[in-house]
Sequence to fold (702 residues):
Amino acid sequence: MNETTTEDLVATEHLEAFQRLLPGPDWLVELRAAALGKFNASEWPTTSEEEWRRTNLSPFEFDLYSIPAASVGTACGTQLPETQLPDGIAGRLEIANGVVRDARLRDEVREAGVVFGELATWLGESAKETPAAVQITKAVRGAMERSLELADNRLQYWHFAMLSSPLVLYVPAGVAIADRFEIALSYSGDEVVYAPHLVVVLEREASATVVRRVSSDEEGEVLLVDGGEFLVSDGARLRYMDLMRMNDEALVFRNDRGNVGRDGHVHRTEAALGGDFVKTRYVSELTGAGADAVLNGLYFAGSEQHMDVRTVQRHRAPHTTSRAHYRGAVGDESHAVYQGLIQVEGAARGTDAYLTNKNLVLGESARADSIPSLNINTDDVSCSHGSTTGKIDPEQIYYLRTRGYSAAEALRILVEGHFEDLIVQAPESIRDELRALVIARTPAEL
Amino acid sequence: MKIEIRGLRATIEGTEILRGIDLSMSTGEIHALMGPNGSGKSTLSNVILGHPAYEVTGGEILVDGENILELEVDERARLGLFLAFQYPVEIPGVTVGRFLKRAAEIRFDGEDLRAKGFIKELRGNMDFLEMDQQFINRYLNEGFSGGEKKRMEILQMLMLRPRFAVMDETDSGLDIDALKVVAKGVNHLRGPDFGALIITHYQRILQHVTPDYVHVMYQGRVVTSGDEQLAHTLEAEGYDWVRQQFGSPQDALEEA
Fold:
C-alpha cells in the first residue's frame, strides 16, 4: 500500500498496475478488481443508447489520458488543528489533484462520532475493530458495492477501477450538525484523469449540510470521472450543494446515487458552471415510506460547451414525494440536454412527484433540449412534468433600461433572475458565489 | 429640464404613427395628453424614451437644447426622464428591493444610498402609496394584479424622482381607490423639480391631478392645446368633435 511511482500511467491500459499502488482495505481492492473486469469486458457508451443519444463519446480518445503518479497515496491525510475553521463550518476537506491538503473537523463534531475524511486515512488512524468502525466500514462498503452492482456503463466501471480512497462523511444516529461540511476539490494538469468518490452516510435521524466545490486551473484538459453515494436513513435530513466550475477544456462525467429512507429528506442542488463536455446523472431512490427529495439543478453552457444532465426520481415506497427543478441557460454555440425521469414502482402508491425544466436560449446557434418522461407502474399517484425553453423578452430589457440599467446589466440581471428561485434555496453561504458565477457567464449582448 | 419636440415623425414596422408632433414641456409643469385610441399617444411616450422598435423618420427631441434621439434608452433615463408603463412587464427572479436599490444607485450616481436612508425612504413611500411592505421581497411585477403593477410604477417614480416623467395611461383599468393613490403620488412629487406628461384616454385622473396644460392628439399630431378647460370640453363632448374638426377626409377614409 502507498508505494510510490515516478511515472504517470495510461489510464486505460495500465489499470491493473495502477490498482496495485492504491490503498486498501481488502474489500476495496476487490471492488476495484471487479470493476476492472467489467471495464475490460465493456465498450464505451454509444449514441444508439437512449441516455447517450445526444452525447457522443466517439470523438474522445480515452487512451490519451494518464493518471498522475503524484495523485497516488496520501501526502497529508492527518487531521490538522480545527482552529482555523471559520464560523458556520463543522469540517473542511481540501483535496488538490486527489491528495488531501487540508483536513479539519471541529472537536465537538468528532466527539459526537462524526467521521469526515479520506477512508484509508481514517482506517489507518482509528481502531478498526471498534463497533463504530465496523459499522461505518460496513455502510460505506455496502453503498459502494451496490453502486458498482447497479453501474451500467463503462465510465462507471472505469471510475470504480481507478478510484483511490473515497471521501467519507458519516454522521451517527440522532446527531444533528447545524454547521456545514465543506469539501473543495481542485485539479490541474493536461490530459490527466481523476476519479474522486464521495460517500455520505446519515444514520437514523441524523442531519447535515454538505457543500462540495469542484474546480480546476484555468487551463489544462482534466478528465473527471466522478461518483458519489448519498445514504439518508430513516428520519435523517441531508442538504447537499455541489458546485462544479471546471475550466472550459475539462471533461466531466458524474454518476451520483441517493437513497432516502422512511421519512428521510434530501435537498440537493447541483450547479454545472464549467467544463467543456459534461455528462452527469443523479438517481434519487426513495426507498422508505414518506421519504422526500428535492432535486434542484442549474447549468449554464457557453462557447461550444456540451452539457447533458440527467435525473431520475425513483419512487419505491408508498407516500413518497419528489420535486425536481432544473434551470438551464445556453449561449454562443453551446448545447445543453436535460433528461428527467420520474419512475414509480408498483409498491409506491400515493407517490407525489413533479419535475420542471426551464431553459433560456441566449445565442442564435445555441440549443437546449428538454426530455422529461414518466414511467408509472401503480395507481393513485400524482405525477407531472413541465418544461419551457425561451429567449429573453426584449421588452424586459427595454423596461430595465428605462430605469437606467445599461443593456449589458439588464441582460445580466435577467439571466441571474432566471436562476434566482434555485439560488435562494441553496445554502446561504454559497448564494452570492452562485450569482457571481452565473453573471460572469452571461454574454455582454444578445 | 426643458423638452422641445419638433416635427417628430416615427414609424413602426413601416407604418407611420407619429406625423409631425410639436410639443414644448418643462420641469415644473404638468401636461395632459388626451386623444382617442390609436392616435399615437403610447408611441409618443416610447419614442421619447427611445424604444428600439420605433424608427424616428423626422424631427427632433431636444432636452435642454440637446437632441436626445441619438442617446440610448438608459442614457435618456440617466438624464432624469422616466416612463410609467401602461403594461409593466414581469421581471422574474429580481426582487423589488434589489431592482430599486440598483436603479437608485444609477440615478443618484455616487451618492451613498445607505447614508441617504434608502430602505427607510422605500418603506415610507410604500406606506404613502398604501402598499404592503412584503412587496420588497417579491419578484418585480410577477403575479401582481393590474392595480399593483401601476402602484409599483408610481413607487419607482417616487424613489427615482425623475425630472420629467411620461405616464402612459397609468390610470387605465384602475378602480377609484387605486386612481387616487396614483394621483397622490404625482401630487406628492409636483413642484419646481418635477414635470410630467400624463397620457390618458379619460378625463377621470385629471379630477385628481390638475394639469397646467392639456393637449389633444389625433392621428399622429397634436391638434389642439389649451388649459384644464379643454379636458372638460372633451369630457362633455367626447372625441367626435376632434374627429370632425381635425380629421382630414383622407384619414377618415383610412379609419373607416
Observations:
- Chain A has two domains: 9-288, 392-446.
